[in-house]
Amino acid sequence: PDKSLVFYSEGSGFYKYFSGYIDYVLDHSDLAVHYVTSDFNDRIFEQKRKGLETYYIGPLALIQFMMRMDADMVVMTTPDLQNYHIKRSLVRKDVEYVYLDHGMTSFHLMLRKGALDHFDTIFCYGPNHMEEVRQTEARYGLPEKRLVRTGYPLLDSMLDSVRELGPVENDPPIILIAPSWQEDNLLEYCLDEILAPLLQTDFRLIVRPHPEFVKRFPKKIEDMVDRYKDYPDERLLFQTDFSSSETVYTADLVMTDWSSIAQEFSYATGRPSLFINTPMKVMNPDYQDIQAVALDISLRDVIGISVGLEDLPRLAEIAEDLIRHRETWRNRIQAAVRENIFDIGSGARGGGQYILDRLFRKESASEELSLLPRVEEQLRTLSADGIPDPEKAERFLAKKMETEPDGQSRGAILLELLDGLSGQAEDRREDA
User: Fold this and answer.
1) Is it the case that residue 367 has pLDDT exceeding 60?
2) Pairing between strand 146-149 and 73-76?
3) Taking a C-beta distance cutoff of 8 angstroms, is the pair 108, 133 a contact?
4) CA-CA distance, 269 to 272, in Å (whole number)?
5) Alpha-carbon dihedral of residues 322, 328, 333, 338, nearest 10 degrees?
6) Are the CB atoms for 305 and 286 separated by under 8 Å?
7) Which of 45, 97, 205, 328 has the fewest CB atoms lying closer than 10 Å?
């Protein structure tokens, strides 16, 4: 294709983060989208849509594939470009690498230090992302990146799913326990202490481990299920089938540690989350070098309540209070969404339009540059020694172009071309 666009996904579950932008590009252009995944069983292969080309690249081949990348733009949710096995292209220096995050959290806490340093462009879901990137650049003397104001298309999908479900009335109320999978997550750290007081109530409890935890530690899941096997599913269910997110949307309350599922749940449903203060998940130990307060910290007492381990015996009382006053929480949560997320309801528009604008701009610049050698070659043919004869060159440039409806001369067209190139150069200086 004239304008090559590649989306790279490291796993099957990541298509949902790209899909809004891919749909926008396909709906608003005739571009082909090349989707590369490192998961042989990726559900992307079930997608049958015109313009969407899908490929599987295994882990070993991926290294060579990325180093030989010959595309105008690569969009990916994988951070740490250039820092580990995924490198920038060795065959093209003008590939634009775009990072979009797979959560509505903060970069400087949840990504490794330097994780975004080698990207050209960052999709920013809210003002916190823009502040964090600019403060990081200032703190470490990094060149400025292109920051694209865009929404979070997955949130739009979640809001649509909640609307389709309609009003939810659970009897008894449902508490969804959905932890992260990092070390000291609440399944390993304090699951028994959490379940003990809640099992004394009428709540229905659904424990939904993180998919990575299930994949990496099947024996631990098996032991947990066995430990509570005497409780019927109507009282306590361990859910390891992630094919549907309905339990997330229909729960009355989500209980978690440091997982971003709290934001997804509360933002989409308007219902509060209950956070357990297990040891904090920190990917960047130097996160406090950046002045901005991470949303993962600040939102814990905005979209719900955070409690210490000493408060676990009171969990049932705290959960009952949150559920009883959830309509009050709804207004507070909706205000937080408006404050922290751009373009709610049209989340893909900003990023999708940026992709199209950049690729068509690159194509235009490439076409104009490709004309110059042909013009220079024609001018050189006017003289045997390669130096244009002034009179012949003048006659050549003055000749009218029959293909032009207004009868422009070759010289006039050349001047327009040079003006366009100057504009392109100026745009590049502004974007750099």
Assistant:
1) no
2) unpaired
3) no
4) 9
5) 180
6) no
7) 328
Cα-to-chain-centroid distance, residue 286: 23
Residue 346 vs residues 36, 135, 382: alpha-carbon distances, Å: 25, 27, 56
Tell me the per-residue pLDDT of 272-328, one tens digit each, with 9 for 90 and over. Answer: 999 999 999 899 999 999 999 999 999 999 999 999 999 999 999 999 999 999 999
Structure tokens at 143: 């060149």
The type of residue at 116 is L
> CA 126 to CA 130: how far, in whole Å?
7
CB 1 within 8 A of CB 71: no
Site of tokens 């490291």: 10
Q: In what order do the strands lie in the sheet with 52-56?
A: 52-56, 33-37, 5-9, 73-76, 96-99, 121-124, 146-149
In whole angstroms, give the CA distance from residue 124 to residue 130: 6
How confident is the prediction for the chain on average, in pLDDT? 87
DSSP state of 106: -
For residues 31 and 52, give the distance between their C-alpha atoms in angstroms, rounded to a whole number.
9
Q: Which tokens hold the place of 9?
A: 């996904």
pLDDT in tens, 80-96: 999 999 999 999 999 99
How far apart are the C-alpha atoms of 212 and 206, rounded to whole Å?
18
Structure tokens given for 65: 């594939």
**What residue type is 337 in one-letter code?**
V
Q: What phi, psi does 126 have (nearest 5°)?
A: -160, 175
Residue 16 φ/ψ, nearest 5 degrees: -65, -25
Which 8-state DSSP code applies to residue 388?
P
Residues belonging to the chain: 432
Residue with tokens 């992630």: 242
Q: What are the Cα distances from residue 128, in Å, to 6, 28, 381?
A: 27, 29, 58
Q: Dihedral (C-alpha) 259, 335, 137, 422: value to the nearest 10 degrees? A: 130
3-class secondary-structure state, position 355: helix
- Strand stretches in 157-203, DSSP E: 174-177
Omega prior to 172 cis, within 30 of 0: yes
